[in-house]
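Table 4 source record.
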Amino acid sequence: MNTKLKTTEIGKRAESLAVQFLKGKNWQIIAQNYRHRQTEIDIIAQEQNTIVFVEVKYRKSSAFGHPEEAVNIQKQNRIITCATHFILHNNIENDIRFDIVAILKTSTKYEIEHFEDAFY
């Protein structure tokens, strides 16, 4: 029996940790796994009057770089396009922002780092 978690299960666990982290900051979760075409936004949340599009990145170690480093310009552009679709189809007039929640597994815990306005 294979005891390794599948990539999708690991991703769901990381997103669940990120949701709990954001809820702990009193953010309202609007949507999870919002899809448009080939792109998915992990979490769409509201912090006060700002709609925040959150990309969650997980790594089991920093051997190949930190999680947030995986959100390159191409990934950012795809997320922005997907967010634009969400904004237009939901008549959003709030301020918007793009954040990254980076989760790094250490030997004893998960380290969560939140990068606000990460695409600029």
